[in-house]
Write a structure and sequence with these properties.
- With about 220 residues, this protein is α/β, with parallel strands linked by helices.
- The protein has a single domain, classed as 3-Layer(aba) Sandwich (Rossmann fold).
- The protein has 8 helices and 8 strands.
- It has an 8-stranded parallel sheet with strand order 1-5-4-3-2-6-7-8, sandwiched between helices.
- Helix 5 packs across helix 6.
């Protein structure tokens, strides 16, 4: 039995974290993922009942595509370093929150979300995806929960924020910047990893009061 097969069997028999009243995966999505498809309202109720701690991670997607990484040694080094930073930080969070930890990102195996799902699988952390319907056209990460909101990219932002307790930012563009600013305005903890480019490198303590900046 492979480690992945064994992990899947363990997940299938672990009914303690199944969302009460959650629907079976929609047939349209069942060919893409075995995650539990659930609404934001049901997930939030489940989150509160199970006392989960959800960390949302935002950042580059297409800008860190496999093709770009393969053709750019400097970018390849940067992505490898970002993954290492994520591994260290999520290991610390797992030690603090244990099985209550859930890490959320954009569902697809693109850029920063890809790093998130790979690291979560490696560390045995439950993962979640929050995306719009267009995610159906992409390869999806291994995750426990999937929330689909809206038909266009960005429609999912409010749901992503509502279901997250704190946010990490690695690179990113306009949407990632708007999400961390909105999270900070709601009093949520924001951690920004610097020196990976994008709008994360533009933000300072003057822009986000109380944010934690990690110099990479």
């Amino acid at each position: 039995m492979t480690d992945m097969h064994e992990a899947k069997m363990n997940r299938d028999v672990d009914t303690s974290s199944a969302i009460e009243g959650g629907a079976a995966i929609d047939p349209v999505w069942s060919t893409k993922t075995d995650a539990e498809l659930v609404t934001a309202t049901r997930f939030i109720a489940h989150k509160e009942r199970e006392e989960l701690h959800v960390v949302g991670v935002v950042g580059f997607s297409g800008q860190w595509s496999e093709e770009k990484i393969a053709s750019d040694p400097e970018l390849r080094f940067k992505v490898k370093h970002a993954r290492h930073q994520l591994e260290e930080t999520l290991t610390e969070l797992k030690e603090r929150h244990g099985e209550k930890l859930v890490v959320s990102s954009g569902a697809t195996m693109e850029g920063v979300p890809k790093l998130v799902y790979e690291v979560c699988e490696e560390l045995g952390i439950k993962a979640m995806g929050v995306a719009c319907e267009k995610a159906i056209d992409y390869r999806l990460g291994e995750m426990r929960y999937l929330l689909i909101e809206g038909s266009n990219w960005g429609d999912e932002s409010l749901t992503f924020l509502r279901t997250s307790d704190e946010l990490f930012m690695i690179g990113g563009g306009g949407q990632a910047k708007r999400e961390v600013l909105a999270a900070a305005s709601e009093g949520k903890k924001v951690t920004i990893f610097k020196n990976f480019g994008g709008t994360a490198d533009e933000l300072t303590g003057f822009d986000i009061k109380g944010a934690t900046f990690v110099m990479s």
